[in-house]
Amino acid sequence: MSDFLEFVLWVCIVLGTYKVLKLVLSVLWYLFTCCARSQAPDLHARYANRGEPENLLPQKKSYAVVTGGSDGIGLTMCHKLAAQGFNICIIARNSEKIDGVFADLKKLYPNTETTKVIVDFSELSDIE
Ligand SMILES: NC(=O)c1ccc[n+]([C@@H]2O[C@H](COP(=O)([O-])OP(=O)(O)OC[C@H]3O[C@@H](n4cnc5c(N)ncnc54)[C@H](OP(=O)(O)O)[C@@H]3O)[C@@H](O)[C@H]2O)c1
């Protein structure tokens, strides 16, 4: 084989190896990010009851305050946070709707303490 053909062959091998490695790395990165996303961060371990003993009474445990926690994204957050051990405070307008959420939370997480703040954020005077 001529020197030139040998050179072309080596260039092809190097480029091919580079492409294959790049593909393998991108697949591995994709799998890694999927795994990282599927694990919700343990917010309770990170933020709750810092410096307090583990066996606190429910009413002494940290509250997570969720604005708009009676529906949609906020409601899902309430369930996730209660599952992690937080007590739940919901801020929204409709008191009965919040009570319904609290009843559901109590069934699933009986140790969860709850409280609510009724505010209409569109009314500035309500907030003041
Ligand atoms: N869903 C999505 O895919 C999505 C995507 C991007 C951004 N967002 C934004 O994320 C936010 C929440 O979305 P969502 O789908 O979870 O909404 P949602 O299901 O309508 O829930 C809204 C929550 O906020 C409360 N709320 C609404 N207006 C309020 C006010 N004036 N004062 C106090 N509380 C109020 C509601 O309770 P009360 O009615 O009892 O007050 C309820 O708890 C919205 O701003 C939305 O634009 C949503």
Describe this structure in words.
The longest helix is centred in the N-terminal third of the chain and has 36 residues, at 3-38. Helix content is 55%, strand content 12%. It has a three-stranded parallel β-sheet with strand order 1-2-3, with helices on one face. α4 links the parallel β2 and β3. The chain has 128 residues and is α/β, with parallel strands linked by helices. It folds into two domains: 1-39; 43-127, NAD(P)-binding Rossmann-like Domain (Rossmann fold). Bound molecules: NADP nicotinamide-adenine-dinucleotide phosphate. Residues 68-74, 92-94, 97, 119-122 line the site of NADP nicotinamide-adenine-dinucleotide phosphate.
User: Strand percentage, roughly?
Assistant: 5-15%
What is the terminal separation in angstroms? 86 Å
Examine the secondary-structure arrangement and name the CATH architecture of the largest domain: 3-Layer(aba) Sandwich
CATH C-level class of the largest domain is Alpha Beta
- Structural class from helices and strands? alpha/beta
Number of strands: 3
State the helix count: 5
Largest sheet: 3 strands, parallel
CA-based shape? elongated
Q: Order of helices and strands, N to C? A: HHEHEHEH
- Our Rg estimate from Cα atoms comes to 27 Å
Low-confidence stretches: none
Give the rounded overall mean pLDDT. 89
Question: Could you estimate the helical fraction of the residues in percent?
Answer: 55-70%
What bound compounds does this protein have?
A: NADP nicotinamide-adenine-dinucleotide phosphate
**Annotated CATH topology of the largest domain:** Rossmann fold
Strand order of the largest sheet: 1-2-3
